[in-house]
């Protein structure tokens, strides 16, 4: 039994990492906004979904007009990523301006409810537009980077099976890592990053120190949403098919990842996302085997969330969260 | 202050005008030329996950109704379609059923798509004696309750699972089968029926695993399939997950036949899976309209009117409406060309024998199952919809 589990480990790790990077980058958006405003921006999952749709629309448009054949696929993807990131970034800023800023001094629960309202709004707007233009809201983009690469993990040790990965997975992984490193540098090394950390620590004091709080919050939303939107594009490239409801489950899982890593902590969100992805994949591949068929793969979320509960019981502030810490 | 007063006056005026207009509308229930109106409701999901199929059923029913409008005008009645959106949600379906019951001019319902919605909603129809004919519900419980109002033109689930299992084991020669299902009443029911049929036919079941509706990454379950090496994968579920499962399976190099039920009978499945769809088999309760002359003609007409290709369920929507209208017509004739009661329509629909639709022949038995219902087996040989017919099994 253990043998079988070990055999599939390389493939499980790869698939888990692919899912985990998506969770991780979305989790960043939750954690940044929470760090600075102590607001759970439930609309973030829908920003991710909107990004996936904008990206797919751009990809369909570019391959349709023939630019696709003129440009190498990777250049096209980078252009799409950047354009989508800007559009969703502005979308996030707009949402903050309209739905959260007027309520900044209202009780905590109120902006939470508007966030849920915004996510329904975005879901149905996207569904409406997709149905209007394609006649169906389940949209499949052009397939890029579908080549398979076989990794001879069996040559490391004979107890492993070979694993195969899609080229798109490598692209998703590299892009996500680049985004996360860039964000880390932005927050820790730049003036705006310093301002963000200052606002997160103490909004009133920061404003006394001539930090323009509204602008910093706007930038936080811009960066978080741009990352979310770009992840949407990566998701669309990796899985091919999207619908307006992908943001809900993924958003929920990413939020969980943010809590697991310690909400408000950027590196924690990354680790939480990767961990959740791998755990989930491990559970769905091996749960039947481990429990002798009593619990099937359908209990993977129960398994992943049970681990979350255990972690939080012993470390309520999350893996990397410290009870009192800089947040952003 | 003055402004406020005049505003109030304006609003009150508007209210009165609205009430008058409402009354005016009511006075006109006779319809144009004063003909009495017969309304038929459709209840299908027009929004949410299954909206693609719900819309198609509604369009088919609409076409059938439009075709017979003139005939009913000669009989002295005005036909109207009232589409309701059940959102694939039992609560919404029951709420709509109450509205339908309250509208005295509605005589019959075409619907639902989801068995889980049809079952509670039909309890309400039974109370109001509104005949329901379903174009798609295959769950056994739909008719097994013995309600007077409930009929269906498609086969039952307990015929779809075994038919697929027989085909998989005897024709595709599958000895080791892995089953995946989506944890819904439909998906699990179908998968269980298939499992039973396959075991009886002598195949070994390597696994029975569930996935979560709405997720996009099924690599975990696929890794299990990869390590167990079955000859065939059976999927009990709907096209949105099915398409991704097929696509991701092929990407992992799982090139064995994949089989599913009528939930995979949708052009969207092909769109999602693309080339990966090859070697996918489905059992469905809806046949291929392109197989017959009448069907081909229907498809062309449907396309020219609705500006999109007909799907199997468009024809079923059309035939269901045809059966309903035939029942109403019989009830009218039996009632000396006067407006029949709901009870008369209900009984006339149940009594229909050998109705020849575009794709189906319909005779209801005493619980409302269609005696001529068939299970069809299709194969996606190319990445195009519809798939090719491989065989059919009588109920």
Describe what this molecule looks like in 3D.
The complex is a heterodimer of chains A (328) and B (395). Chain A has 328 residues and is mainly alpha-helical. Chain A has helices spanning 2-37, 44-65, 67-70, 73-100, 109-134, 167-189, 191-201, 203-208, 213-239, 246-261, 266-290, 300-314; strands at residues 139-140, 148-151, 163-166, 241-242. Chain A starts with a helix and ends in a 14-residue tail after the last helix. Chain B is an alpha/beta fold and 395 residues long. In chain B, helix 2 links the parallel strand 1 (37-44) and strand 2. The longest helix of chain B is centred in the N-terminal third of the chain and has 26 residues, at 2-27. In chain B, 53% of the residues are buried. Mean pLDDT of chain B is 86; it is low at 18-31. Classes of the chains: A mainly alpha (328), B alpha/beta (395). Chain A binds chain B through residues 4, 7-8, 11-12, 15, 18-19, 135-138, 140, 143, 146, 148, 161, 164, 166, 235, 239-243, 245-246, 248-249, 280-285, 288-289, 296-298, 300-301, and chain B through 49, 51-52, 183, 207-212, 214-217, 219-221, 223-224, 226-227, 240, 243-244, 247, 251-253, 268, 271-272, 274, 308.
Regarding quaternary structure, how should these chains be classified? Answer: heterodimer
> What is the CA-CA span between the terminal residues of chain B?
76 Å
C-alpha geometry of chain A: globular
Show unreliable segments of chain A.
Answer: none
Our count of domains of chain A comes out at 1
Q: Provide the CATH superfamily of the largest domain in chain B.
A: Response regulator
Give the number of helices of chain B: 13
Q: What's the CATH architecture of the largest domain in chain B?
A: 3-Layer(aba) Sandwich
What Rg of chain A do the Cα atoms give? 20 Å
- Which strands sit side by side, in order, in the main sheet of chain A? 1-4
The helix tally of chain A amounts to 12
Taking Cα atoms only, what radius of gyration of chain B do you get, to the nearest Å? Answer: 23 Å
Order of helices and strands of chain A: HHHHHEEEHHHHEHHH
Order of helices and strands of chain B: HEHEHEHEHEHEHEHEHEHEHHHEEEE
Biggest β-sheet strands, sense, barrel of chain A = 2 strands, antiparallel
CATH topology of the largest domain in chain B: Rossmann fold
Beta-strand content estimate of chain B: 15-25%
Termini distance of chain A? 44 Å
What proportion of the residues of chain A is helical, as a percent range?
over 70%
């Amino acid at each position: 039994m253990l043998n079988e589990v070990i055999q599939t480990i390389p493939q499980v790790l790869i698939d888990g990492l692919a899912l985990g990077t998506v969770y991780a980058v979305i989790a960043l958006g939750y954690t940044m906004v929470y760090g600075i405003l102590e607001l759970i921006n439930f609309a973030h999952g829908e920003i991710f979904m909107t990004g996936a749709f904008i990206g797919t629309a751009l990809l369909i448009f570019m391959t349709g007009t023939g630019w696709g054949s003129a440009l190498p696929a990777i250049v096209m993807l980078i252009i799409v990523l950047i354009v989508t990131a800007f559009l969703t970034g502005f979308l996030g800023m707009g949402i903050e301006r309209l739905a959260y800023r007027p309520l900044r001094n209202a009780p905590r629960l109120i902006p939470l409810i508007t966030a849920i309202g915004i996510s329904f709004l975005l879901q149905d707007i996207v569904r409406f537009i997709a149905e209007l233009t394609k006649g169906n809201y389940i949209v499949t983009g052009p397939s890029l980077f579908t080549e398979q690469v076989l990794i001879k993990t069996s040559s490391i040790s004979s107890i492993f099976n070979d694993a195969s990965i899609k080229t798109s997975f490598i692209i998703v992984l590299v892009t996500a890592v680049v985004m996360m490193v860039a964000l880390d540098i932005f927050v820790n090394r730049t003036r705006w990053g310093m301002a963000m950390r200052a606002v997160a620590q103490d909004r009133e004091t920061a404003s006394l120190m001539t930090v323009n709080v509204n602008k910093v919050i706007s930038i936080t939303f811009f960066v978080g949403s741009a990352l979310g939107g770009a992840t949407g594009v990566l998701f669309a490239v990796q899985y091919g098919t999207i619908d307006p409801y992908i943001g809900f489950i993924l958003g929920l899982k990413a939020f969980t990842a943010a809590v697991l890593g310690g909400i408000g902590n950027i590196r924690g969100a990354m680790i939480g996302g990767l961990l959740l992805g791998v755990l989930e994949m491990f559970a769905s591949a091996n749960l039947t085997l481990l429990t002798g068929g009593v619990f099937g793969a359908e209990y993977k979320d129960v398994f992943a969330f049970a681990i979350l509960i255990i972690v939080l019981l012993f470390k309520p502030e999350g893996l990397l969260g410290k009870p009192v810490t800089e947040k952003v | 202050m003055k402004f406020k007063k005049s505003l109030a006056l304006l609003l009150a005026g508007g209210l009165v005008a609205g009430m008058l207009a409402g009354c005016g509308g009511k006075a006109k229930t006779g319809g144009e030329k004063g003909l009495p109106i017969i309304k038929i409701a459709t209840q299908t999901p027009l929004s949410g996950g299954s909206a693609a199929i719900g819309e198609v059923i509604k369009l088919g029913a609409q076409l059938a109704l439009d075709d017979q409008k003139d005939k009913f005008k000669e009989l002295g009645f005005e036909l109207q379609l009232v589409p309701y959106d059940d959102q694939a949600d039992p609560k919404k379906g029951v709420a709509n059923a109450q509205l339908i019951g309250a509208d005295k001019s509605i005589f019959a319902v075409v619907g639902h798509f989801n068995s889980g919605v049809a079952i509670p909603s039909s309890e309400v129809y039974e109370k109001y004696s509104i005949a329901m004919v379903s174009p798609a519900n295959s769950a056994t419980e739909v008719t097994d309750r013995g309600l007077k109002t409930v009929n269906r033109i498609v086969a039952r689930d307990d015929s779809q699972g075994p038919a697929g299992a027989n085909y998989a084991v005897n024709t595709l020669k599958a000895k080791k089968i892995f089953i995946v299902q989506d944890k819904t009443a439909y998906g699990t029911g179908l998968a269980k029926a298939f499992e039973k049929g396959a075991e009886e036919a002598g195949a070994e079941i390597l696994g029975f695993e569930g996935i979560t509706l709405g997720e996009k990454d099924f690599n975990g379950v696929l890794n299990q399939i990869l390590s167990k090496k079955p000859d065939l994968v059976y999927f009990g579920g709907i096209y949105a997950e099915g398409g991704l499962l097929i696509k991701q399976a092929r990407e992992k190099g799982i090139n064995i036949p994949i089989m599913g039920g009528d939930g995979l009978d949708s052009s969207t499945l092909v769109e999602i899976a693309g080339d990966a769809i090859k070697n996918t088999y489905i059992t469905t309760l809806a046949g291929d309209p392109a197989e017959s002359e009448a069907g081909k003609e229907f498809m062309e007409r449907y396309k020219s009117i609705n500006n999109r290709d007909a799907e199997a369920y468009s024809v079923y929507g059309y035939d269901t409406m045809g059966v309903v209208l035939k029942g109403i017509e019989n009830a009218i004739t039996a009632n000396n060309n006067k407006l029949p009661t709901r009870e008369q329509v209900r009984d006339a629909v149940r009594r229909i024998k050998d109705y020849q639709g575009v794709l189906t022949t319909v005779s209801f038995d005493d619980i409302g199952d269609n005696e001529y219902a068939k299970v069809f087996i299709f194969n996606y040989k190319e990445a195009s919809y519809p798939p090719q017919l491989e065989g059919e099994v009588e109920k």
